[in-house]
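Quick bug: Cupin 2, conserved barrel domain protein output formatted oddly.
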Amino acid sequence: MKENKDLIGNPLPLKDLTDYQEGSVVSRMVINKKAGTVTAFAFEKGEGLSEHSAPYDALVIVLEGEAEIPIGGVPHLVKEGDMLIMPAKIPHAVHPLSRFKMLLVMIHE
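Here's what came back:
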């Protein structure tokens, strides 16, 4: 994947990395390196991510809205300004309770 040349060296509010799209989950890869990834997501109300697991720990930084993020069957309510670490290989999902934006940082080992 090509670098986001428009982002490098240019300040940008985190909330502006992605826009909402009716009936969709929008994602934008901000950084894609062998060492890890940073991806911005915008979830329209009623959209989400079904349960899955990842091979690496992932850090969610909530930019806007609220969501329930169950990890290993335990629900966690997150809101703007919160962060949540989702451990590797543990099933998790994202269930927005409103329009919801988050930044996902995944560090590969």
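Actually, after a second look the formatting is fine. The first strand starts at residue 25 and ends at 33. Closing.
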